[in-house]
Amino acid sequence: MLPAKLTGFIAASLVATAFTSSALAAEVSVVTSGGFTAAYKALGPQWAKTSGNTLKTQLGPSMGKSDEAIPNRLARGEKIDVVIMVGYALDDLIKQGKVIPGSRVELADSPIGMVVRKGQPKPNIATMDAFKKTLLAAQSVAYSDSASGVYIETEMYKKMGIEDQMKPKSTRVQKTPVAETVAEGKYQIGFQQVAELLPVKGVTFVGRIPNEAQSVTRFAAGIPVDAPHPKEAAALLKYLASSAAQPTVRKTGLETVKQPTAAKPAAK
Fold first, then answer.
1. For the chain, percent helix, then strand, then coil, each to nearest 5?
2. Distance (Å, rounded) from C-alpha 3 to C-alpha 18?
3. Mean pLDDT, contiguous 10-residue spans, the chain (268 residues)
4. pLDDT value at position 87?
5. Radius of gyration over alpha carbons of the chain, in Å?
6. Which strands make up the sheet holding 27-32, listed edge to edge?
């Protein structure tokens, strides 16, 4: 047995070490928009475990009028270490001086998908003609108030030549995940980024919309200019964008960002 004095010294040392580690650990505040949320929820705890830091996570769309929207949070002075959002919306915040320019990292690409309520027939969207017929036959359609919904409402319908027929029966859903409203029977068809549709129960995932109608959203992340813990935030972003994180990213319905192919040297 160890002498009582030595035992006491070891116990005191352990307490002091635990206190020091706790004091050095940071609570990193993260706000993530829907498309990358499933991947972040899987990856975030792994980073926290290895780094010794903790994560305070909140959800918020990349744009829109809601109080939870990331631009609105920053506008009212919320202290945030990391924002994860649609790439072009992040670029706007960088231009406005709200996010550190050199902190931007590419995370993933996110295609648009479609769901119907569980138990309902699975519509044919394999080709553009079939997709168009499905939309025209639908009684009601819902899409998000973020990037995918803005694209559908302002571009996709026009591109397909069905804007006049679709607008009266289409709804842009705020705050609530689109698939949840479809599961509740409020809408017949729902569109959102695939990664936001897959986790929701009560719906059937029909598939990605055809490539000719598709719009892939790039998700990126950055560090606000007044972030309380910029060093820890940078470490988190490095991990989320790493090759080690990619299997988890793809499992959630996202796609790995394709790196530009290096030009081949000219033959001599």
1. 45, 20, 35
2. 23
3. 47 43 77 91 96 96 88 96 96 97 95 97 97 98 91 97 97 92 98 93 97 95 98 97 95 84 43
4. 94
5. 23
6. 54-59, 27-32, 82-86, 217-222, 105-110
- Are the beta carbons of 110 and 35 closer than 8 angstroms? yes
Domains and CATH numbers, the chain: 26-109+217-251 (3.40.190.10), 112-208 (3.40.190.10)
d(CA 112, CA 168): 21
Give the length of the chain. Answer: 268
In Å, what is the CA distance from 174 to each residue of 146, 149, 178, 213? 8, 10, 9, 23
Tell me the residue type at 98: K
Residues 6+ apart with CB under 8 A from 73: 31, 60, 67, 80
For residue 140, the SS3 value is: coil
CB 192 within 8 A of CB 181: no
The residue type at 159: K
* Residue 231 CA: distances (Å) to CA of 151, 223, 224, 235: 35, 10, 12, 6
